[in-house]
Write the structure tokens for this entry.
Amino acid sequence: MRQFLCRKGTLTSHTYECVDWQANGKALKSMSFGERIWATKFVSGFNGCAKMMVRCKQWESDICPQCGSCIESNWHVLWCTDSKAKSQRHQLTVNFDIWMTENQTHPALHRLIIMILQQGDTTSFSRCAQRNIDPQITALVQEQDEIGMKNFFHGRISRKWSVLQDQHLRVNVSRSRRSGTSWAAGMIRMIYRWGHAQWKSRNDAVHKKDNEIAEVRLMNDTDQKIIKEFSSGFSGIRAGDQYVYDGLDVEDVLTRRHEDKLVWLRHIEAVRKRATRAESTQMDQMRTFMERWKKRRKR
């Protein structure tokens, strides 16, 4: 994996050694199968974002279906400017904040992470920690910036996160059974879930639009079938069943609710099938009569 990531330019030989792979592995093992599948797709970039869908010739446009203002990439989904996406991101950040409080996160790390979750697309770790005078925090943010912002959201964090958290737990939390590595694994899991929840929200919005489009198409298809039935008129309908058109014109049926239109179409379909069966039965009877008549003539 090291050679692949370095060859791809995702990491360098130096930054690869800086990543806390132990915490990353623990985080993935603690996640559900579905979450791990999503994480794999998210990190690799092979997912259903508009950019990839156009590349696979499944969609015609690569514009974000939520904000509609730019190309939707894997990264854009996390920072979409759509009002609903921003509201969802805010609530997820609040949940992350609660998790860090409950897990006794180092105050400086706590503030840093919240700032990144709020501004990640427009900032850097060093910029968020520029007022911090702790040399260990300075070393951390510099190393994480070297590793990269995207790598952070892909669960590739500096080992200095767990070191600082471990020191904090030992000094400030008496009799704590937690370790910096277990905290780092939990943080990576929360990062993945923070992104996953936004993807699920995005997918709900996209599929809702798809369902609305499908519903409109279904209604248009139903209207076309009604118009076709009125064009056919009484043709193929027995005299006793022609009451289905009594007092009706095409506009009367088209203005009905969609469910009522479908009921009317099913009624017409049943009437036409009944006429077809009756005609078929009549033809069979005539055929039988003629065959018997021919046999009598031969005798």
Observations:
- Residues 2-213 form one domain.
- Residues 180-232 form the longest helix (53 residues).
- The chain has 14 helices and no strands.
- The mean pLDDT is 85.
